[in-house]
Amino acid sequence: MSAPSATKDVGKQRNKPRRLVLFMPLAAFMALTAVFVWGLGRDPNQIPSQLIGKPVPEFTLPPVQGRMLGLSSADLKGEVSLVNVFASWCVACRDEHPLLMRLKENGIVPVHGINYKDRPQDAARWLGALGDPYTRTGADIDGRVAIDWGVYGVPETFVVDSDGTIVYKQIGPITKAALKETILPLVARLQAE
């Protein structure tokens, strides 16, 4: 009588791995669901920047072709400014460009440009055709400076205080709402300090 009982125990042990295999897809589904639910309430434009509250990275960039003034970390001290990372091949950069031109026309805050991984002649042609909103424009042909700034993609815009500290990062194109609700109030507050 003990032989049939031992056979049943062996059969139960063989079924345990099969049960685990059956539960693995359910466990994976539950894990993916938990990640999805966690991400639902998050704003995709609010990717944290490790540089907020830190000095701008040390860098020196030559001017964009046809421009006189390049850009360096030393240029970002002494006044509140915006640093806009752009490229001629970037569609969203074209969308935000009129707002940058308006900032220049109104003289609210200096805007400096980092031209990201662009061919020199394309960047010069783009700024010539659309207008140049930048006080200084550095050519980051290999993209190393943008990496040091923690750029995920173009366009991105940084608010830099008069001490040369990064205070805010706008991921994606600047919109009228972003200017009105976030960027310009921040600039005004920093300029008043």
From TrEMBL:
Name of the featured protein: Cytochrome c biogenesis protein CcmG, thiol:disulfide interchange protein DsbE
Key word Transmembrane helix present: yes
Main location: other
Entry keyword set: Cytochrome c-type biogenesis, Disulfide bond, Membrane, Redox-active center, Transmembrane, Transmembrane helix
Taxonomic lineage from the root: Bacteria, Pseudomonadati, Pseudomonadota, Alphaproteobacteria, Hyphomicrobiales
Annotated InterPro entries: Periplasmic_diS_OxRdtase_DsbE (IPR004799), Redoxin (IPR013740), Thioredoxin-like_sf (IPR036249), Thioredoxin_CS (IPR017937), Thioredoxin_domain (IPR013766), Thioredoxin_ResA/DsbE_sf (IPR050553)
Annotated signal peptide: none
Family (UniProt): Belongs to the thioredoxin family. DsbE subfamily.
Thioredoxin domain span: 50-192
An MF annotation (GO) of this entry: disulfide oxidoreductase activity
Compartments where found: Cell envelope
TM spans (from-to): 20-41
GO terms for biological process, alphabetical: cytochrome complex assembly
Any one cellular-component term (Gene Ontology): outer membrane-bounded periplasmic space
Keyword set includes Cell cycle: no
